[in-house]
C-alpha cells in the first residue's frame, strides 16, 4: 500500500539536482510536488512552480504562505559565491526563510531533506580521509553545510518535523546555466573536439586520471529523497549517496571517447576555463548545423567545475555502507549512466548526434 499522500516543496527545483528530484517524485502516484526557483522551469514538468526569491523574506512570506498542505521540504537551492566564507550567509538565509515560512503555513510538514555534498568532508580542499564516512570529523569552518545541518538539527523538534541530509558527489544530470554540472562539461567538450578534429584528451592532472573517484547520477538522488522521506530510520541522519560504483577516469575516459566517436590520445593537463574561452563560435556552428536547442555557450557548461573535478589528483570516495545498512538499494554502473544520459541529451537536441553510444 502506498504511504498517505505526500506533498513535497522542492527548493531549487530548477537546478541540476532539484529537477531530477521533481522528475522522480512525479513518477510516484502518492506524491505531489511544487518547485521553487526564481526562473521559470527549464525542463518538462507537470509540477507547479512558484517564482520566489528565497533571499527575500517578504517575498517568501508572500509566495509560500498559501502552501498549507506541504508534508515535505526538499532543499536543493544553492547560491554560489566567490569564497568559502561568503557562501555561508546567503545559503543560510535561503534555508531559514523557506523552513520558517513553510512550517508556519503547513502544519502537516513532517520531513525536511537537505542536499549536501563532499565539502562536508573537505573534498574541495585536498586529500581527505577516504572512503569518507558520515561520522568523520568536520574540517575547520567556514562550511555552509555545517551551518545548514546544525540549523535543521536544532530546529526540528520545535518545528515538529524530522530531517535527513543526503551527501552526493559530482552530480550527473541535465541543466544549463548552473555552476556545477559535470555531464554538460564532458558532452560539450567532446562535441567541440569532434568539430575541431582533435582528440578527446583527459584535460586534468595525471594523478586525477588514475585516482579512485565517483559521481552521483541525479536520478539516484531523486530515489534517495523518496527513501529518506519514508524510511523512519533515516530521520535525524546524514547519508552519503553515490552511484556506489567507484571508478577511475583512466578506465572511463577511453570508453567515453569511443561512445562519442572521437579519437582519443594521451591525457594532457590544461585549463578548460582558459581553452574554452574562445570557443563560442565553434559551439554556435555546432548548434546551427545540427538544429540544437540554442543554449548560449556561456550557459551550456561550467568549465571551472570541470577544471576542479579533473584536478582532484587524490582519491575521492565516500562510503555508502550506511545508507545501504538503512535499506536504500539505489545505485548504477557509471559507464551505463553516462551512456543513458548522453543518449537522452542527443534525443533532446542538447548535444549533436555522434555524442551518443555507437
Ligand atoms: N551539482 C553538483 O555536482 C553537486 C554535487 C554535490 C552536491 N551538490 C549540492 O547540491 C545542492 C544543489 O546544487 P545544484 O548543483 O543542484 O545547484 P544548481 O543547479 O545551481 O541549482 C540551484 C537552484 O537554486 C535556485 N536558487 C538559487 N538562488 C535562489 C534564490 N535566491 N531564490 C530561489 N531559488 C534560488 C536556482 O533557481 P533559479 O536560478 O531559477 O532561481 C536553482 O534552481 C548544493 O548544496 C550543492 O552544493 C551539488
From TrEMBL:
CDD domains: 5beta-POR_like_SDR_a (cd08948). Residues 59-298 form the PRISE-like Rossmann-fold domain. Pfam families: PRISE (PF22917). InterPro entries: NAD(P)-bd_dom_sf, PRISE-like_Rossmann-fold. This is NAD-dependent dehydratase. It comes from Actinopolyspora mortivallis. The lineage of its organism: Bacteria, Bacillati, Actinomycetota, Actinomycetes, Actinopolysporales.
Amino acid at each position: 500500500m502506498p504511504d498517505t499522500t505526500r506533498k513535497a516543496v522542492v527548493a531549487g527545483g530548477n537546478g541540476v539536482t532539484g529537477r531530477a528530484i521533481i522528475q522522480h517524485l512525479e513518477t510516484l502516484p502518492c506524491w505531489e510536488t511544487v518547485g521553487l526557483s526564481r526562473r521559470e522551469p527549464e525542463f518538462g514538468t507537470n509540477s507547479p512552480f512558484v517564482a520566489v526569491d528565497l533571499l527575500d523574506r517578504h517575498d517568501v512570506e508572500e509566495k509560500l504562505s498559501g502552501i498549507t498542505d506541504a508534508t515535505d521540504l526538499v532543499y536543493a537551492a544553492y547560491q554560489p559565491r566567490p569564497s568559502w566564507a561568503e557562501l555561508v550567509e546567503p545559503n543560510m538565509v535561503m534555508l531559514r526563510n523557506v523552513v520558517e515560512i513553510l512550517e508556519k503555513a503547513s502544519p502537516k510538514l513532517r520531513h525536511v531533506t537537505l542536499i549536501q555534498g563532499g565539502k562536508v568532508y573537505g573534498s574541495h580542499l585536498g586529500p581527505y580521509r577516504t572512503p569518507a564516512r558520515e561520522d568523520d570529523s568536520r574540517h575547520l569552518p567556514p562550511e555552509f553545510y555545517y551551518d545548514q545541518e546544525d540549523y535543521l538539527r536544532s530546529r526540528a523538534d520545535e518545528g515538529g518535523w524530522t530531517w535527513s541530509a543526503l551527501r552526493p558527489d559530482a552530480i550527473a544530470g541535465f541543466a544549463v546555466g548552473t555552476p556545477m554540472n559535470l555531464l554538460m562539461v564532458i558532452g560539450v567538450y567532446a562535441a567541440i573536439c569532434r568539430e575541431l578534429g582533435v582528440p578527446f584528451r583527459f584535460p586534468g592532472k595525471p594523478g586525477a586520471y588514475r585516482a579512485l573517484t565517483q559521481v552521483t547520477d541525479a536520478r539516484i538522488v531523486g530515489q534517495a529523497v523518496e527513501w529518506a522521506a519514508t524510511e523512519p530510520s533515516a530521520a535525524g541522519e546524514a547519508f552519503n549517496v553515490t552511484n556506489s560504483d567507484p571508478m577511475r577516469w583512466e578506465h572511463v575516459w577511453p570508453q567515453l571517447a569511443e561512445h562519442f566517436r572521437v579519437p582519443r590520445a594521451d591525457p594532457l593537463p590544461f585549463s578548460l576555463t582558459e581553452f574554452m574561452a574562445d570557443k563560442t563560435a565553434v559551439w554556435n556552428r555546432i548548434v546551427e548545423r545540427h538544429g540544437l536547442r540554442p543554449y548560449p555557450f556561456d550557459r551550456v557548461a561550467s568549465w571551472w567545475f570541470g577544471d576542479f573535478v579533473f584536478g582532484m589528483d587524490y582519491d575521492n570516495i565516500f562510503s555508502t555502507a550506511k545508507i545501504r545498512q538503512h535499506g536504500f538499494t539505489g545505485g548504477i554502473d557509471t559507464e551505463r549512466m553516462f551512456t543513458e544520459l548522453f543518449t537522452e541529451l542527443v534525443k533532446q537536441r542538447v548535444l549533436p548526434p555522434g555524442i551518443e553510444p555507437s
